[in-house]
């Protein structure tokens, strides 16, 4: 089977060298892999590095470098999918680390009869420093990232969505392309349509890839706010895309808002109760996050980091819901 290995990137020059090395090391026959790079109009050397890779003699079927003038991810994936000639379309983020058997494991799973495949995507720290490790623990903890049980599963199963998916080309031919009106929720909406089209999404724990953790606390907060914002907006297009766990931070924020109104009215125990329960849970989950880890003084900040991520995500969702009618009106006229 021919595999179209697709990567879109914006200002990823510091990560591309590692990714290129991983691509070269794939144990699947290189003459059955085409590489499609999509550059989202980067302002650094991202496109230059892609073009240099394309000139190398690595034995790949072909290497294509394309531009994405719209810059958004959904548009970039659509450009790659339309260009792809392979039987399987494989999507990878630029800040990803993949083992040598990544492509072959996806092909093996699809050859077994699956339509869409993927697996776990653990985070790895950018650097081995105490502070970076603290941020890594916050992002990899269930309390700081996701409570979706399949993300830590060790068994093959069928799920609603996967990271770094591999797709039979026919899946996009039937389900359509990515919705270019969406930001970070384009995967959720696409996978929802794929399931509605009758295809199953297979999670196989042997198909593993890794993603670098966010480099700074500020980047983590910005990411969580953006994720929450797009969940709020996407509710107006595809409410079935999400599970209840996507709205836990939003529920926390709404509980605080209601409790604050009650506090103003003189009913103080609701706010006190919510804060006591949350911070007890925060401290307990922080303890489990650092359990069996080498102790650093930065770990004292974990409860505050968790709180900031939950607030950013929940506030983002609230802002998205408030903006929803205006956003829908805007995209209707595009």
TrEMBL record:
CDD domains per UniProt: Succinoglycan_BP_ExoA
Transmembrane segments: 228-247, 253-284, 296-322
Keyword Plastid: no
Pfam families xref list: Glycos_transf_2
Keywords noted in UniProt: Glycosyltransferase, Membrane, Transferase, Transmembrane, Transmembrane helix
Tree of life domain: Bacteria
Ranges for domain Glycosyltransferase 2-like: 4-174
InterPro entries: Glyco_trans_2-like (IPR001173), Nucleotide-diphossugar_trans (IPR029044)
SUPFAM superfamilies per record: Nucleotide-diphospho-sugar transferases
Keyword match Transmembrane helix: yes
Protein name, UniProt field: Glycosyltransferase family 2 protein
Organism: Mediterraneibacter hominis
């Amino acid at each position: 089977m021919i595999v179209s290995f697709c990567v879109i990137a914006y200002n990823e020059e510091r990560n591309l060298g590692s990714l290129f090395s991983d691509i070269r090391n794939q144990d699947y026959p290189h003459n059955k892999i085409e590489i499609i790079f999509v550059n989202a109009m980067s302002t650094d050397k991202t496109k230059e590095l892609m073009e240099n890779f394309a000139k190398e003699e690595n034995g790949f079927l072909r290497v294509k470098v394309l531009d994405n003038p719209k810059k958004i991810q959904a548009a970039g994936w659509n450009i790659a999918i339309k260009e792809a000639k392979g039987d399987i379309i494989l999507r990878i983020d630029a800040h990803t680390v993949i083992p040598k058997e990544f492509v072959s494991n996806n092909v093996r799973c699809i050859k077994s009869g699956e339509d869409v495949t993927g697996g776990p995507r653990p985070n790895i720290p950018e650097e081995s420093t105490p502070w970076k490790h603290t941020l890594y623990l916050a992002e990899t903890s269930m309390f700081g990232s996701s409570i979706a049980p399949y993300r830590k599963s060790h068994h093959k199963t069928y799920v609603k969505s996967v990271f770094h998916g591999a797709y039979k080309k026919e899946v996009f031919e039937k389900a359509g392309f990515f919705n270019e009106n969406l930001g970070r929720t384009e995967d959720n909406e696409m996978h929802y349509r794929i399931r509605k089209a009758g295809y199953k999404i297979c999670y196989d724990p042997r198909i593993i890839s890794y993603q670098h953790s966010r480099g700074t606390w500020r980047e983590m907060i910005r990411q969580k706010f953006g994720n929450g914002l797009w969940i709020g907006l996407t509710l107006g297009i595809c409410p079935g895309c999400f599970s209840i766990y996507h709205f836990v931070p939003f529920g926390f924020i709404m509980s605080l808002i209601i409790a604050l109104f009650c506090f103003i009215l003189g009913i103080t125990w609701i706010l006190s109760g919510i804060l006591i329960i949350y911070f007890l849970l925060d401290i307990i989950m922080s303890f489990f996050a650092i359990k069996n880890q080498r102790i650093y003084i930065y770990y004292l900040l974990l409860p505050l980091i968790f709180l900031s991520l939950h607030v950013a995500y929940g506030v983002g969702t609230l802002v998205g819901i408030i903006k929803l009618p205006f956003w829908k009106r805007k995209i209707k006229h595009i």
